[in-house]
Design goal:
This protein has helices at 14-20, 116-131, 143-171, and strands at 11-13, 26-33, 36-45, 49-56, 59-72, 75-81, 88-89, 91-93. By secondary structure, the chain is α+β, with helices and mostly antiparallel strands.
């Protein structure tokens, strides 16, 4: 059985929260999927913590999550201190009654469960986004880099057509 991944849980990202709210402010974070609300919590920002108020299975929960700060080139960077393991993390997940880090809930990232075909497809999609649809070099990109990315894209496309796709199609059928 595979591990649950982070995509299936509601997440609270400190980078997003710090952009939206300042110390002393209050608000509500809402999550939705396909236009339907899947979760909501009220928060109150403090200088070195955030207070979360929400309901879990009909029970009101108040959770105080403290911040940790690290120095970086542009000032100070905030982190959540996970209430479970006390690690510094940027994202907390709602895998149960409390918001904890992915290590506490034993979650993995979706890309960690991808097979060979999924990794190839993701790499091709990423390269296609970088070089654009018309294969015209973006103004901001150096010519050498554009040519290198274009070569890599075409090499992967040929590899998928010549090698990977026939093997994937053949792997789906059982031979006797």
């Amino acid at each position: 059985m595979s591990k649950p991944n982070t995509e299936t849980y509601l997440k609270l990202d400190i980078r997003w929260l710090r952009k939206q709210a300042r110390p002393g402010s209050r608000g509500t974070v809402r999550w939705s999927t396909n236009g339907h609300e899947t979760g909501a919590i009220d928060y109150q920002m403090e200088k070195n913590s955030v207070i979360l108020k929400y309901c879990y299975r009909g029970e009101p929960v108040t959770e105080v999550i403290s911040f940790s700060w690290t120095r970086c080139n542009y000032g100070m960077r905030p982190w959540f201190v996970c209430p479970g393991c006390k690690k510094r993390v940027a994202i907390l997940y709602s895998g149960g009654k409390y918001f904890l880090c992915r290590h506490c809930y034993d979650l993995c990232y979706p890309c960690q469960q991808e097979g060979y075909a999924g990794r190839l497809a993701r790499k091709v999609t990423k390269l296609r986004a970088l070089i654009g649809d018309g294969f015209k070099r973006p103004r901001y990109m150096h010519r050498k880099k554009f040519e290198r990315l274009q070569d890599e894209y075409f090499r992967l496309e040929m590899f998928i057509e010549d090698y990977a796709m026939p093997r994937l199609l053949k792997g789906g059928k059982k031979s006797r």
